[in-house]
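Quick one before lunch.
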Amino acid sequence: MAKTDQELQQFMERVRQRNPGEEEFQQAVHEVAATIIPYIDQHPGYKEVNVLERLTEPDRIIIFRVAWEDDKGTVHVNRGYRVQHSNAIGPYKGGIRFHPSVTLSVLKFLAFEQTFKNSLTGLPMGGGKGGSDFDPKGKSDREVMHFCQSFMTELYRYIGHFTDVPAGDIGVGAREISYLFGQYKRISNLFTGVLTGKGLAFGGSLIRTEATGYGAAYFMQDMLRHVGEDIDGKTAIVSGSGNVAQYTIEKVSQLGGKVLTASDSSGFVYDKDGIHGDRLEFLKELKNVKRGRIKAYADEFGVEFYAGKRPWGVPAELAFPAATQNEITAEDAKTLIKNGCRAVSEGANMPTEQDGIDLFLDAKIMFAPSKAANAGGVAVSGLEMTQNSMRLSWSRDELDQRLRKIMADIHEKCVHYGSEGAWCNYLKGANIGGFIKVADAIKSYGVM
Ligand code: NDP
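Model of the NDP complex:
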């Protein structure tokens, strides 16, 4: 066994012992460690002070009870979390997820990833993530409001515009951020940029809603341009139909691509004419206003709906997983490669299982890992923080240009650290590119 493989095995053994049963967290650490351990072997300054292992332990984790009353007066209890992973290069920053699948392991993986992603943006933001196993689906606005108020009544003690600045994620969109911000403001008596993704009337930023999806499309455009191609004229498949999926579809269409699919947890729709224009507006209304199921799109436009299935069997040149973690298995990766997929841009966090990633890399697919491809959302959140501090608002065009430039810079960093001859290993490039700044800061602070 090669020396670095042995080091990786020993390293992961220690991570598993300290975090038993936390599979998602172990998976995320493995994905990073597999590329960072060979790098730090060549840069012993990081190894001497054990930076990587220190980065696998969050600064702190806060866990709390969230009791709330439904419309019938029944009292429910959920669990709330905030994982403050690293503030080495800025205040903790990362979303809040409300979904029944939320566990400590899921949030630790997301907070760990967020630290590297935020570093890649070049902005001064540390990494964190939070959430609850609360399911907003099927709840009335009033119930969601009660839950958010109860959640914030505990969380407010631990956050602040210089401390920790949460945002949205799965199940936490404009409605939830508004309830959360309203409660923070009320109990702290402070109007500060403590959350991002806010409404435009109270300190929100233009382009934030679109940023993650647009960013994933921009990153795809940069990967294709790097090999002398473009999105224009190519077919694409997208999973999910929430915030990230909607704006990935919008930007890919604007750039001349044809998006064939969208999905939710009940199945996917296949629209051979492409999801764009009025059809995309219908999808947005269905998901953001009516909070309906994706089958309604198939019923409206007479296209096919595949119940309980994911879209990876539909032949296309580009793939954008934009729903949730581990949605592309090794089998799915094989199918995508067999069907001629050339490039994958991960809008969701860690949507591809490790075996699937290995297959993509072996097949020399252009594979953009989430920490690079979906960094556009947090980048514009960082710009929202700047605007709040400066008490000004930038125009839509200015913000879109800044987003475009940040995605291009991340692409450059990945190419710099990930090029292997003519081909770029974007996973390696993103991991090393994200690691260096955080690791240098940690080294400078001494042992803590
Ligand atoms: P939304 O809640 O807006 O949408 C999530 C979508 O994914 C929905 O279509 C949902 O379907 C589907 N989905 C969620 N869980 C599952 C599951 N277990 N199985 C199948 N489908 C599922 O979330 P976002 O669009 O904000 O987030 C999507 C992904 O992007 C997440 O991985 C998130 O962490 C990541 N991300 C989001 C950012 C943002 O700015 N919002 C920033 C960076 C990353 P259904 O409605 O049926 O549950």
